[in-house]
Structures are given as C-alpha cells and as structure tokens.
Amino acid sequence: GLVLMGGDFNMVRWGYSVEHLAAVAGVKVAGPMQGTYLGFGSLLALPLDHVFAPQSGRVTYRPLLGSDHLGLLGSLAL
Q: Whole-model pTM?
C-alpha cells in the first residue's frame, strides 16, 4: 500500500540506514534539504529530520517551537 515516512531519523539522508529504509519502503525524498538539528547553536545545523513519499514532494521548514529541531511541513505527491 501507500507509504509515507517522516521524522527525526538522527541520521543524515545519505546515511545507510535512511537510504535503506527509503528503498525498502519504495519512497523518494521530499526536499529541499536543510539542517534541522540546532543542538550546537548556529555553528552547525545537521540535517537529521526527513520526509519521504511515493512520488517525492516539497518540505517547508517551521520554527523550533520548544524543540532543538526545526519542524517540517510536507506537501507530498502521492
């Protein structure tokens, strides 16, 4: 069936575990990609949060809202 996958993977998109999950689920990454984990302040933002859908899509980044990760809002192609 239809698979949507998203969340805090604690891994960059090109990491083996994320690529493997996406391949098994048959989904494509929704972009663009930007650093989402701001745990090190403004010095380094790591891209650890991702959204995937069957036909890709687009991600808009949202404010922190009490987290150390930016929020993601996906507009996904099913």
A: 0.86
